[in-house]
């Protein structure tokens, strides 16, 4: 073969090899993309399941605890204080309707709660359970999703208080600290001493409530702390920015 034919064959061979390699690599990339899409779909399903579980726990736990408490109170009052028992039954009906609405909002993937509204509801439920509750909301309240998260913290704290504590007093307070963050505290005196005289930490109880709250607050740049204070009371403290930061709002 002359020089031109030799060069032509050599170039053709190289180009053919590159084309074959490119087609083979393209097929591999298609398979990798499909596997990545399947993994993304699995992660999305897992995240949605976690969201659904958190929302059900945070929303319905409070409602069911309030219904149980008020039902027991109505049963005790039905023979002696009929009017008050009827009022408690009406309250149970209202909470049941709210629980049904919560289930629907969880299914839709969106819900909006207000810390101020939740504080009023929490005070009423605690007082119905024989717990003296004081509420002090000062300064600017959080907005948007942060408001919903802080309201969820309050609801979970009250739910745990009704379930696990024998408190007689509860203090709910919210204010703005020097850094411009909203601070919410829920303090109760329902901590019981063990036989050894030590004070157990209620936050060590089994359950996912506090873990859910820590996850929610961390997502907006907030933080959660709980434990026994110097007065021997159990304190839950949540801190979060007044509104969602711009880099998280996107």
Question: How would you characterize this protein structure?
Answer:
The chain is 61% helix and 14% strand. With 250 residues, it is α+β, with helices and mostly antiparallel strands. Helix 4 links the parallel strand 1 and strand 2 (169-176). The protein folds into two domains: 1-111; 113-250, Heat Shock Protein 90, CATH 3.30.565. It has six helices and five strands; from the N terminus they run αααβαββαββα. Strands 1-2-3-5-4 form a five-stranded mixed beta sheet. It is elongated and about 115 Å long. Helix 1 packs antiparallel against helix 2 (82-108), helix 3 (115-128) packs parallel to helix 4 and helix 4 packs antiparallel against helix 5 (209-219). The chain has helices at 3-77, 82-108, 115-128, 144-164, 209-219, 246-249, and strands at residues 132-137, 169-176, 181-188, 223-228, 234-241.
In short:
By secondary structure, the chain is of the alpha+beta class.
What attributes characterize this protein structure?
single chain, 250 residues, alpha+beta, Heat Shock Protein 90, 2 domains, five-stranded mixed sheet, 5 strands, 61% helix, 14% strand, elongated
CATH level-4 homologous superfamily of the largest domain: Histidine kinase-like ATPase, C-terminal domain
CATH fold-level assignment of the largest domain: Heat Shock Protein 90
Percent helix range: 55-70%
Distance between the termini: 66 Å
The residue ranges in which pLDDT falls below 50 over 5 or more consecutive positions are 193-207
**Sheet with the most strands, sense and barrel status:** 5 strands, mixed
Report Rg: 28 Å
CATH architecture of the largest domain: 2-Layer Sandwich
Multimeric status of the protein: single chain
- DSSP helical segment count: 6
Write down the secondary-structure element order. HHHEHEEHEEH
Spatial shape: elongated
Structural class: alpha+beta
Report the β-strand fraction as a percent range. Answer: 5-15%
Mean pLDDT: 78
Strand element count: 5
> Could you name the CATH class of the largest domain?
Alpha Beta
If strands are numbered along the chain, what order do they take across the biggest sheet?
1-2-3-5-4
């Amino acid at each position: 073969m002359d020089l031109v034919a030799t060069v032509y064959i050599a170039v053709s061979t190289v180009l053919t090899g590159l084309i074959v390699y490119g087609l083979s690599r393209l097929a591999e990339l298609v398979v990798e993309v499909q596997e990545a899409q399947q993994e993304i779909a699995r992660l999305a399903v897992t995240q949605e399941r976690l969201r659904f579980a958190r929302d059900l726990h945070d929303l319905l736990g409070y409602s069911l605890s309030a219904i149980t408490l008020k039902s027991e109170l109505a049963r005790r009052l039905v023979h002696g204080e009929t009017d008050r028992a009827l009022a408690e039954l009406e309250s149970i009906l209202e909470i049941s309707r709210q629980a049904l609405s919560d289930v629907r909002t969880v299914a839709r993937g969106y819900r909006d709660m207000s810390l101020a509204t939740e504080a009023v509801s929490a005070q009423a439920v605690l007082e119905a359970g024989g717990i003296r509750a004081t509420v002090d909301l000062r300064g600017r309240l959080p907005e948007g999703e942060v408001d919903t998260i802080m309201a969820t913290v309050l609801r979970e704290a009250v739910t745990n208080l009704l379930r696990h504590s024998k408190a007689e007093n509860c203090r709910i307070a919210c204010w703005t600290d020097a850094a411009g963050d909203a601070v919410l505290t829920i303090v109760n005196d329902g901590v019981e001493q063990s036989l050894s005289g030590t004070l157990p930490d209620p936050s060590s109880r089994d359950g996912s409530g506090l873990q859910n709250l820590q996850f929610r607050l961390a997502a907006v740049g907030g933080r959660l702390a709980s434990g026994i204070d110097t007065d021997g009371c159990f304190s839950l403290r949540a801190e979060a920015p007044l509104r969602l930061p711009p880099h998280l709002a996107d």
